[in-house]
Amino acid sequence: MVFSSLLFLFRYLPVVLLLYYIVPRAYRNAVLFFMSLLFYAWGEPVYILLMLFSTVVDYANGRFVDYYIKKGQRSKAKIFVILAVIINLSLLGFFKYTDFVIDIINKVAGGSLTPLSLALPIGISFYTFQTMSYTIDIYRGDATVQKNIISFGAYVTLFPQLIAGPIIQYNQVDKQLKSRRETVGQFAYGIQRFVIGLGKKVLLANNIGLLWDNISAMNIENVPILTAWIGILAFAFQIYFDFSGYSDMAIGLGHMFGFTFLENFNYPYISKSITEFWRRWHISLSSWFRDYVYIPLGGSRKGLGKQIRNIFIVWLLTGIWHGASMNFLYWGLYFAVLLMVEKIFLLRYLEKAPAWVARIYAMFFILLGWVIFAFDNVSRGKAYFAAMFGGLNNSFINGDTLYLLYNNGILLIILILASSGVITKLVKKKMEKVTIPTTIISNIFYLLILFLSVAYLVDASYNPFLYFRF
């Protein structure tokens, strides 16, 4: 079940909201827990057992950590933190990376091991990081132990951000799980935020995704240079509006149930450096690696050499986190190198450069990174690079290029303006001048987005979520 489906919008969500608000406040976490399990079971009922196992294991380890810390025995508490980390990473590694490792062994050692071909549990990369943060936060003193296993289960399985984030660290919702107050204003904001996310996903990401699918399916040897650049630009917009749209919907749903989740995107394509880009893109993942890997390794406190080492480790892990394929490993290392170069010397020059120069630099290397990311087949990715830079003796432009621009030009302009924040700024500026109450205009706008999105979904056959596979 996905948020951008008629089943979710008109059946599942209304039932959950009704149950949530009619039960006494003390039972609302239980409603979230059991209805979230139903949400997860809709696609993968078998893996509910895996999620329940993770819930029980991390709940028990958290209680042990709290118990030994209160007794002043931090060394024993640390054992249970390590145990929780090992169990969580073992589950993630088994389901996500076993076949990847088998494939490497077969290629390097000439083996003939048979892949397990396990289905990847949806959202396992996200909820694994969330459950690990629980015991670590308790050990550090950043959060208090959750003694109610149902409330803890609600945290682990919380359906608004279960499948594709944002990644919620336990210390961010510790108090909200125990005591939160839902308000009409908060609920209304949640609906607005959800509708915006739905529109970004359905009206923008899906439509530009069709263009990318069309170009990426072509015979790369015959793809003109301009067509190749249009294609990777389309992918860049698809993955941004797909993922940020999902995050908006998750944040909106959180508000409907009284939760406040941190932002996950902040117009990343206006960045003036790769360093800034990763402060604006998938913020919850970058924050998780910063708080639980980069800083514990020493961060930038122990000299440039160790800082470079820490950046390398974090981005090696970031690449692998995204998928069990060599292209994701290369993608992580690619950004590690760029960030190292910026940290060593380039960043200070970018800060002095004209803004437009810095933005072109950042967007150029971001697009190259998306080529690595987009192609699981590394050889095909190399060929696409060659097509972009004329290495296949391909033409710069042809009739198909003009046809694609003619049919998608307006959409591309809308995407450029929307991803840069220009549309948001213009709307706010115009709203300050109108005499009609802004609530009336904004409500009409949200209803229009909802209507158009639902109309699209009624007849849609193309509705993927790119980050579900991570």
Provide a descriptive summary of the structure in words:
With 470 residues, the protein is mainly alpha-helical. The protein has two domains: 6-180, no CATH class; 186-458, no CATH class. It has helices spanning 6-22, 28-41, 48-70, 74-109, 124-140, 149-157, 170-178, 184-216, 225-256, 274-280, 283-294, 304-322, 326-352, 355-374, 378-388, 399-420, 422-431, 438-458. The chain starts with 5 loop residues before the first helix and ends in a 12-residue tail after the last helix. The mean pLDDT is 90.
Write the layout of secondary structure elements.
Elements: H1 6-22, H2 28-41, H3 48-70, H4 74-109, H5 124-140, H6 149-157, H7 170-178, H8 184-216, H9 225-256, H10 274-280, H11 283-294, H12 304-322, H13 326-352, H14 355-374, H15 378-388, H16 399-420, H17 422-431, H18 438-458
